[in-house]
Amino acid sequence: MVTGRLLPLDLAQLPTMLFGGQSLRIEEYTDGDTYVIRVEVPGLDPDKDIRLSVFGDRLQIRVERTDERLDKAHSEFHYGVFTRTLQLPLDAQADGITAGYAAGILDIRVPLTGRAEPGREIPITVAGKAARK
Fold first, then answer.
1. pLDDT single digits (tens) 100-130
2. Distance (Å, whole) CA 35 – CA 91
3. Residue 107 near residue 35 (C-beta atoms within 8 A)
4. Which of 25, 54, 70, 92 could in theory staple to 88 by disulfide, Cβ–Cβ 3.0 to 4.6 A?
5. pTM for the whole thing?
6. 3 state SS of 11
7. pLDDT at residue 132, rounded to an integer
8. pLDDT above 90 (res 7)
9. Rounded distance, CA 118 to CA 127, Å?
């Protein structure tokens, strides 16, 4: 399967890795003709705290954990809005994406066509010459 990634690293997460902070923890794998993304989101209400959006060939996961204002002696919970944007595989069918939530895990399934659209070459025009083909 071709994933369409140039790097095994999600560059959108670079600021979090460099400067610290909370990130959404995920795992990705292919299960037959389905690309699976699992996200750890324990203790959240998927109806109001989690949003999934597709923008072209990218999937955005947005999670918001709100702070209950209690007098806490200590808390290691992270509150706020956390997003993660993932590049979908080249052969993903974005209109067939489904998602489910159970036991604190968001399970996203993306159907794959098995064939990626071929790229196309862009001609380069050089001043004073016809375009190179």
1. 999 999 999 999 998 877 788 888 888 877 6
2. 10
3. no
4. 92
5. 0.70
6. helix
7. 56
8. no
9. 29
